[in-house]
Design brief:
The protein is built from 15 helices and 14 strands. By secondary structure, it is of the alpha/beta class. Helix 3 links the parallel strand 3 and strand 4. Helix 5 crosses helix 6. The chain is globular. GO terms for molecular function: 4-phosphoerythronate dehydrogenase activity; NAD binding; protein dimerization activity.
């Protein structure tokens, strides 16, 4: 069996070589020539999977080690009887931890403010439960969920009244509630001046040109992990935001490995074989002298480092912005999630409980 895979899918050789011959290449270079005699195609979000790529190939299974599926023409795959699997929820912890880091970095007193969450699935729902455990006032907009699923469900108008807005929707352009440019000029103008807007869903959920134009007037704080027209992001917008990162919110090591494993497991199901079990030991790192929640979060993951690197690599790059953006993602350092950290010697009971709510170990 011939398996063609994005080289940025960690452990792909270890996980898939028991089933066939694995060839890897950069995701943006996967083309119809490379896949024409492949049986299996494994991608991440940067490979467009559609008729142009697959027509005439013998691909029977497509796996995407991602949550988002806007790069995959699932309708085409169904029509051609090509099996498809993605990795729902694989990196939800990573994105929640990115959000916490960004909030502590940009607005240290955010715990006392109202946080609006738009899109309350694996990421937004986990963020909601984490914030509730910390006692934060939340309101949630997700037209596909019930109030039983999300007790603080509210209308779109109400979510726009929050002082902090976190966007975690997929990118959709059809259906009853499409998200493409959901935050267009008119909607952005309804968001409180001085509010904090964070987008870690998909870039085009926010009209980036409108955001850039309105920013001076509304003095929002802005955190963007995702951008319209990635990898060619708008440099004026990067300069205008408080935190800008190269679509790495979900890039914890755990999240990326989960993605690869979930696709491998779905592939085994498709083959009708049992899923191999993994017996990996969790690496534990000790943290000491953590006097506050913000200190612990930023000690483990400080989003400001990713922001600095993005500015250093992209600003002044001219035509090679896209290459620099992709390179930052490809060479992203190993980032371990909070569950790998044990906080020692914490004498404050409330802080200990809050750390536990975020997934830190105690001991
Ligand atoms: N920045 C990054 O690294 C990452 C970005 N993502 C993006 O974030 C999105 C969300 O991830 P998950 O929570 O894991 O997906 P999910 O599929 O579990 O949840 C998405 C939620 O958005 C809701 N939704 C859909 N349309 C909506 C609308 N018009 N208004 C409000 N809510 C709407 C759905 O009902 C669902 O509950 C993904 O589709 C992906 O595009 C996901 C992981 C990492
Ligand atoms: O899972 C998703 O959806 C994401 O946005 C991923 O974190 C994107 O990572 P790549 O697939 O672009 O490496």
């Amino acid at each position: 069996m011939k398996i063609v895979a994005d080289e940025n899918m960690p452990l792909v050789r270890e996980l898939f070589s028991p089933y066939g011959e694995v060839t890897t290449c950069p995701g943006r270079e996967i083309d119809s020539q490379q896949v024409k005699d492949a049986d299996v195609l494994l991608v991440r979000s940067i490979t467009r999977v559609n008729a142009a790529l697959l027509e005439g190939s013998r691909v029977r299974f497509v796996g995407s080690a991602t949550v988002g599926v806007d790069h995959v023409d699932q309708h085409y795959l169904e029509g051609r009887n090509i099996a498809f699997a993605n990795a729902p929820g694989c990196n939800a912890n990573a994105v929640v931890q990115y959000v916490l880091s960004a909030l502590f970095r940009v607005r240290p007193d955010w715990l006392r403010q109202t946080v609006g969450i738009v899109g309350c699935g694996n990421v937004g729902g986990r963020l909601y439960r984490t914030l509730k455990a910390l006692g934060v006032d939340c309101r949630c907009y997700d037209p596909f969920l019930t109030v039983e699923q999300i007790p603080d469900k509210c209308s779109f108008e109400e979510v726009l009244d929050a002082s902090i807005l976190c966007l975690h929707t997929p990118l959709t352009s059809s259906g009853p509630h499409p998200t493409y440019h959901l935050f267009d000029e008119q909607v952005l103008r309804r968001f409180s001046p001085g509010g904090l807007l964070l987008n870690a869903g998909r870039g085009a959920v926010v009209d980036n040109a409108a955001l850039l134009e309105l920013l001076p007037e509304y003095a929002w704080q802005v955190v963007l992990d995702v951008w319209e027209n990635e990898p060619t992001v708008s440099l004026p917008l990067l300069q205008a935001v408080n935190i800008g990162t190269p679509h790495i919110a979900g890039y914890s090591w755990d999240g990326k490995i989960n993605g690869s494993r979930m696709v491998r497991d779905a592939f085994c199901d498709w083959l009708g074989e049992s899923q191999p079990c993994s017996s990996e030991k969790t690496e534990i790192i000790d943290l000491i002298q953590m006097s506050s929640l913000g200190k612990a979060v930023l000690a483990v993951y400080d989003v400001a480092g990713d922001d600095r690197q993005m500015r250093a690599e992209l600003l002044g790059k001219g035509e090679s912005i896209g290459m620099a953006f992709d390179q930052l993602r490809k060479s992203y350092p190993q980032r371990l999630e909070f569950q790998h950290y044990r906080v020692r010697g914490c004498s404050d009971r409330t802080l200990e409980q809050q750390l536990a709510a975020l997934g830190f170990r105690s001991g």
